[in-house]
Amino acid sequence: MSLTKQKILKAAVDLFNQKGYVNVSIRDIASSTGISVGNLSYHFNTKAAILENIYQQIITERNSLLSGIQLIPTVKTIHEQLSPIIGLYQKYQFFYLDILEIIRANPKIAKLHRTHIQTQIQYIKAVLDYSVETGNMLPESHKGQYQHLSHTLWMLLSFWLHQQKIRAKEGNYLHEARSAVWNLVIPYLSDKGKKNLHTIYEKQYTISNPKS
Amino acid sequence: MSLTKQKILKAAVDLFNQKGYVNVSIRDIASSTGISVGNLSYHFNTKAAILENIYQQIITERNSLLSGIQLIPTVKTIHEQLSPIIGLYQKYQFFYLDILEIIRANPKIAKLHRTHIQTQIQYIKAVLDYSVETGNMLPESHKGQYQHLSHTLWMLLSFWLHQQKIRAKEGNYLHEARSAVWNLVIPYLSDKGKKNLHTIYEKQYTISNPKS
DNA sequence: GTCTATAGAGTGATAGAC
DNA sequence: GTCTATCACTCTATAGAC
C-alpha cells in the first residue's frame, strides 16, 4: 500500500475516534492528511472504501494478536493477554462506538463483523472450558452457564468504552475493564483459581472497586 | 400540550427508533406527521427541542413506573418489575442505541442522563442490599462486589438491545434480557433465593440458554 | 396555525487542468 | 498523483403569504 494511502487511513482513524464516524467528512480527512479532496478520492473512491480498508486492518491486527497468544491459558496469561485485546478496542474505538451506524450503512461489514463476534464469544467460551480442565474454574453448575458467561464477558469488553463515554468517567481504561472482567469471573473460580488471581493482584489492596 | 405537538413527538419517536436519530430529518418527521416543515418548526424550533421533549417524556414515564413499584423486593416482584423497565428501553430504544451521538450534540441532555444513570445503578445496588437482608442473596464476599455487580447489571440492561441489533439476533427481547440478568445473579443467590427463582422458572426446563 | 418557498451551510463525489 | 472548481444533493432553519 502506498505511503499516501497509509497516511489517509491513519488520519481517518484519528478523526473517527475523535468525532465519531458520521461526523467526519472526506474534506476533514483530506485536510488532516494534508492533501486535497480530489487526491483523496483518487486513492479511495468513497468514504465506505476507507472504512472497509480500516476494517481489514482491524481484522489483520486482531488475527496476528491471537495467533501470537499462548495456547495454554493460565490465570496469569489470561490477565496479560487481556491487555492487547482491550488495547485494540481502544485503538479503533470509533468502530465499536459507532458500530450501529456503520452496519446500518454498510451491509458488507455488518455481515463480516457478525461472524467475527460469534468467533470471539466462542473463543472466550473455549478459554473458560479449558480453565475448568486445568482446575482454575469450577465445572458448570447448570447447562449453558458458561455460554451465558462468555456472552456477558464479551458484552463487558465490547461496551466498556461505550459506557465510559456515556458516563464521562475518565479512569484507566485497561485497568478498569480488566477489573470488571475478573469481578465477573470470580464467583466461578476454584480455590486454585482464586489463589492464582490473588497472586496477580497481591500488590494492590484488592481488585479495585468501581468508582461508584 | 397541543394535539399537534403530541402527534409530532409520536411520529418522531417512531422514526428515530426505525432509522436512528441522526438519520431522521425534520422533513421526515413533518411528512410522517402529515404537516409541513414550516408548521413543524412553529411547534418545535429545532430538532434538539424535539429530542428534549422526548427525553422529558422518558423521565416522566420512568418515574411514574418506579413510584408504582413494590418497596419490598422479593425474587418474584423483581422478576415482574423487570418487565416494564425493559419495556421502556424498548419503547425509546433510539435514545439508548444512539446515546453517544445524542450526548455529543446535546450537553444538556448529556448531563441529565449522566446523573440518571448514577441513580439507576444505585437503585440496583439498593435492591441487592435488600435481597441480602431478606436472605435471598449471600452477603458480599469482598468489599465492592455488589457495587461491581450493580454496574454490570446496568450495562447488561442498557446495552442488551444494542448487542441484539449488532448481532442481528431477533429473539424475544424481554425474555432474553431477563434471563441474562438472572444468570448473572445466580452465583450470588442463597439457597432460599435459588429456590424462589426456581419457582418462577419451574414450568421451563431451566433459565433459557443463549442461542449460542 | 398552517402553508410554500428559499436561504445558507453542509455533504459525497467528479471533471478536467497540470 | 495531485490540484482546483463545481455539480447535485441534503440538511436545518426562517421569511412571509394566507
Top keywords for this entry?
DNA-binding, homodimer, 212 residues, elongated, 2 domains, Tetracycline Repressor, domain 2, mainly alpha, Arc Repressor Mutant, subunit A
Structure description:
The N and C termini of chain A lie far apart (47 Å). Chain A has helices spanning 3-19, 26-33, 37-43, 47-67, 75-91, 93-97, 99-105, 107-133, 145-167, 173-185, 191-201. In chain A, 74% of the residues lie in helices and 0% in strands. Chain A has 212 residues and is mainly α. In chain A, helix 5 crosses helix 10 (173-185). At the A-B interface, helix 7, helix 8, helix 9 and helix 10 of A face helix 7, helix 8, helix 9 and helix 10 of B.
Name the structural class of chain A. mainly alpha
Q: What's the mean pLDDT score of chain A?
A: 95
Give the DSSP E fraction of chain A (strand runs of 2 or more residues). Answer: under 5%
Shape of chain A from CA axes? elongated
What name does the CATH topology of the largest domain in chain A carry? Tetracycline Repressor, domain 2
Show unreliable segments of chain A.
none
> What is the highest CATH level, the class of the largest domain in chain A?
Mainly Alpha
The CATH superfamily label of the largest domain in chain A reads Tetracycline Repressor, domain 2
Summarize the biggest pleated sheet of chain A: none
CATH-defined architecture of the largest domain in chain A: Orthogonal Bundle
Total domain modules of chain A? 2
- The gyration radius over C-alpha positions of chain A equals 20 Å
Work out the largest interface and the residue count of each chain.
A-B, 48 and 49 residues
Helix content of chain A: over 70%
The number of distinct helices of chain A, counting runs of at least 4 residues, comes to 11
Q: Say how many strands of chain A there are.
A: 0
The SSE order of chain A reads: HHHHHHHHHHH
